[in-house]
UniProtKB/TrEMBL annotation:
PANTHER family, A to Z: ALKALINE PROTEASE SECRETION PROTEIN APRE, MEMBRANE FUSION SUBUNIT OF EMRAB-TOLC MULTIDRUG EFFLUX PUMP
The protein's name: HlyD family efflux transporter periplasmic adaptor subunit
Residue ranges annotated for the AprE-like long alpha-helical hairpin domain, each copy included: 2-109
Coiled coil: 87-114
Keyword tags: Coiled coil
Pfam families documented for this protein: Beta-barrel_AprE, HH_AprE
AprE-like beta-barrel domain sequence ranges: 160-222
Organism annotation: Salmonella enterica
Length: 226
């Protein structure tokens, strides 16, 4: 009956309160670590989200207990008025908790966005070496033209973009076998590799640099390195 349901809900509230107490202790431990930069802010926000959610669940269960008690002990209009006031208070607490949760979710979304913007994605799978020394110091600045680090590719399958003088356009074709010479960063000796022309731009491309206007066809070649 209703009394057994109330007993079950009361036990559930007890368990939720114990869980909330543990969550509050975790938050108290993590907060100073976040201030010192030892623990990420996102971890603290997740813990606070969990605590707010527990508060909402406890309030909701208490609301159910009050409703069931009123169902048993309802004695006229006065009790009904008290019940309505209490329900209004519970609803307000739930609304406040939902607002707090919404704010925390927005902060967490911003943090995740900032984190994703700070991630450098490698164009190839490989091993990082020769890192720019300015990237290893707090407050270090790297200009757009500077190298962040070098990557030694793991995959032997490589695609490269090559600029071809327009006067040689009639001598190259898609699917044609060719040879490409690579000058390594760590090795100045040019090494030839057999390659296949994968794609040729349909039109001449123009670009301007310090020496003036340059015209070329953009050619994609595919080759394997060992």
């Amino acid at each position: 009956g209703a009394e057994s349901e109330i007993h079950g809900l009361t036990e559930e509230v007890k368990n939720k309160k114990e869980e909330y107490s543990l969550s509050a202790k975790e938050i108290n431990i993590i907060e100073p670590l976040v201030k010192k930069g030892i623990s990420p802010l996102s971890n603290l926000l997740v813990k606070k989200q969990g605590a707010i959610r527990l508060q909402s669940e406890i309030s909701e269960i208490n609301n159910q207990i009050v409703s069931k008690n009123n169902f048993i002990d309802l004695k006229g209009k006065e009790i009904s008025t008290i019940r309505q006031d209490y329900l209004h208070s519970i609803q307000k607490k739930l609304q406040d908790s939902e607002n707090d949760l919404s704010i925390l979710n927005a902060e967490l979304k911003i943090i995740n966005l900032q984190r994703s913007e700070n991630i450098v994605h490698s164009p190839v799978e490989g091993v990082i070496y020769n890192v720019n020394k300015n990237a290893m110091t707090i407050g270090g600045v790297i200009s757009p033209t500077e190298m962040l680090f070098e990557i030694k590719p793991v995959d032997k399958h490589v695609r490269a973009e090559v600029k071809i003088n327009p006067k040689y356009r009639d001598q190259i074709f898609v699917g044609e076998k060719t040879t490409i010479s690579i000058e390594s960063i760590v090795n100045s000796r040019r090494r030839p590799y057999p390659a296949i022309i994968e794609n040729i731009s349909p039109d001449i491309i123009e670009s301007k640099d310090n020496t003036g206007l340059k015209e070329y066809y953009k050619v994609m070649v595919e080759f394997y390195v060992s």
